[in-house]
Design brief:
The chain is an alpha/beta fold and about 450 residues long. It is about 40% helix and about 15% strand. The model has no long low-confidence stretch (mean pLDDT about 95). Pathway: Amino-acid biosynthesis; L-tryptophan biosynthesis; L-tryptophan from chorismate: step 5/5.
Length: about 450
């Protein structure tokens, strides 16, 4: 048996089109609704926020959408990303399972997020837009859009969730190095930010709040558009380049995954790896177990309600049907800031409702324990978000050991943890504790979901 570890594609193998799971869903996704009329939203309703090309991708139903050559040229800076066989982890676990991971931390910004930041910035540039606003949790998305802005000479303003702004100063420094302006959210720069601070001057912030601030700036300024790093259909579309490459690389390895795993907050890196494999199944291929892994402190799939909800706290965005904890839900300040979002992307939620995927949730201490084991065997320090996928992959490998099964496990290592070392310091010092959401607050948040006629 070959002892090969890395499975690498050349630049000519970068996919020429993104895969759209909407084309293969057995039942169509529920419509997006206008926040005022609660009627299906049309392309014109999105124009204050996005350029038309991205709006068309948001509602597209064709299976493949061509990747523009200028975007593929930028992708050559780091794509195709490597597929790795985690042989040392397998040995440490003494498992008959084979463990592979797709490593997205090789991008200049250190995560999978540039896969959508680059095309979003390019389409805006083509539409004559020079300024973008966005939100970020841990900072991986903010850093990636800042990187994209530096390549296309665009002005980027990032509203970063206050708790992550304070926890992760080096991600803030990375954004500023790329030329972006980073603002702690909630801030005094917007009406919604000032309203939140008036009620709670020490608010830790949330992704929903940061989205509200970024959207408000875009809506009020016709020369500014908004960019989102997860949740929306066009973001999921852009990320499928991960799974498309992984399918080719698994063929190179002479293997085929039985279990496909990725962490899930809004759903982008999960969709990126999983959707192309789901598509294979829906078009007549074999069914694999597809597992989305989320934090126990913000469990949108495993605890949320499948309902129409706003994507932001100030209730300015269109209504999307998704698994949600309620737009007013305030997750605890655990370290996986990129997973602290109240809703799961509509496409991921729809796949869950159709029984195409599973969901698991973990507390953060067990995830960091897995992250440390992975670092000490494979050498890569995972971002806190990615430790959730590592935890699940290890547990699946230990299940295989207990059952005496040799299954193939593939997971997405969506980013490195080089800017998250304070969280590892806290783990080693015993200061990292498991956090749970407040049941009463969750109940109140779910009770406040908008009423939409069936």
């Amino acid at each position: 048996m070959s002892d090969q570890i890395k499975f690498l594609l050349d630049e000519d193998s970068i996919p020429k089109a993104w895969y759209n799971l909407a084309a293969d869903f057995p039942t169509p996704m529920p419509a997006v609704l206008h926040p005022g009329t609660k009627q299906p939203a049309g392309p014109a309703d999105f124009e204050p926020l996005f350029p038309m090309e991205l709006i068309l991708q948001e509602v597209a139903t064709e299976r493949y959408i061509e990747i523009p050559d200028p975007v593929r040229d930028v992708f050559k800076l780091w794509r195709p990303s490597p597929l790795m066989r985690a042989r040392r982890l397998e040995q440490a676990l003494d498992t008959p399972a084979k463990i592979y991971y797709k490593y997205e931390g090789v991008s200049p910004a250190g995560s999978h997020k540039p896969n959508t930041a680059i095309p979003q910035a390019w389409y805006n540039k083509q539409a004559g837009i020079k300024k973008l606003t966005t939100e970020t949790g841990a900072g991986q998305w903010g850093a990636s859009l800042a990187f994209a802005g530096s390549l296309f000479d665009m002005d980027i303003t990032v509203f970063q969730v206050r708790v992550s702004y304070d926890q992760k100063p080096y991600r803030r420094a990375l954004m500023e190095t790329y030329g972006a302006r980073c603002v702690a959210s909630p801030s005094n720069e917007t009406e919604c930010g000032r309203a939140i601070l008036a009620k709670n001057p020490n608010s830790p912030g949330s992704l929903g709040m940061a989205i509200s601030e970024a959207v408000e700036i875009a809506v009020k300024n016709p020369d500014v558009k908004y960019a989102l790093g997860s949740v929306l259909n066009h973001v999921m579309l852009h990320q499928t380049i991960i799974g498309e490459e992984a399918i080719k690389q698994m063929e190179m390895a002479g293997d085929d995954p039985d279990v496909v795993i990725a962490c899930a907050g809004g759903g982008s890196n999960f969709a990126g790896l999983a959707f192309p494999f789901i598509g294979l199944h829906l078009r007549g291929g074999r069914k694999r177990r597809i597992v989305a892994v989320e934090p126990a402190a913000c469990p949108t799939l495993t605890r949320g309600k499948y309902a129409y909800d706003f994507g932001d706290t100030a209730q300015m965005t269109p209504l999307m049907k998704m698994h949600t904890l309620g737009a007013s839900f305030m997750p605890p300040g655990f370290h996986a800031g990129g997973l602290r979002y109240h809703g799961m992307g509509p496409m991921v939620s729809h796949a869950y409702e159709l029984g195409l995927i599973e969901a698991k949730s973990y507390h953060q201490v067990k995830c960091f324990e897995a992250g440390v084991q992975f670092a000490r065997t494979e050498g890569i320090v995972p971002a806190p978000e990615s430790t959730h996928a590592v935890r699940c992959a290890i547990d699946e490998a230990l299940r295989c050991k207990a059952e005496g099964k040799s299954e193939t496990i593939l997971f997405n290592l969506s980013g490195h943890g080089h800017f998250d070392m304070q969280s590892y310091i806290n783990y080693f010092e015993g200061k990292l504790v498991d956090q749970d959401y407040d049941e009463a607050e969750l109940a109140a948040s779910l009770a406040a979901l908008p009423e939409v006629a069936a």
